[in-house]
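Now for a sample.
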Amino acid sequence: MRGAIPEGQVGINSVSEIIGVVNPGTSSATVTFSFLFQSGTAYRTVLTVPAQRRAQLDVMALPNFPVGEPYSVFFESTRPVTLNLPTDAFGDEFASEFSDKAYTLWGFGEGFRPKREGVVTEYLRLFNPQEGDVLVEITLHFDGGLGEETFRRTLPARRVQEFDVHDFVTGDKRNKKVFYGITVKAAQPVVAYMAHYDSFFPGGFGTLGAPLGTSVGV
């Protein structure tokens, strides 16, 4: 069994990440975690989960764990397990499930950039599980008759890449409050995650997108 989540941010926006693992089976599970960083480096560790028990992995407690760089968490388990990733980010509690599949199209319905900069944070995390580079198209579909904008980016093999969504709001649209949806279209299946935080609310969320298109196991 395999799965991945592109949301890893210890030392960036988060001070705590604890991965919970539940093993509902009748024999123990050995779960191998690979933390795949944007720079191309990796950190690996193993967690054994007894039968019909829960165990957890405290990322901050891992010896010599690199901090301050985006990463994707990829796991392989000898038995079927369930995982989640609660993250203490922006002074709030984010949480997301892992995906066992990558898709060629992902959709997000929530996007907002106010006229005043610095009060809203939005980013995309895209994980490429393929053995080669993958070309993606990131499209913002604006509300209010403002059209859409598409940007192409290349995701290196077996890495996560982070993108500031507000960098894709250009021209006169940067001088007004804009709302938009986002689609991520890929030449080969990838995993897409988005996070949003309002400092004036305050509050935020992080989520995998709505999966569409062709899928393969990660």
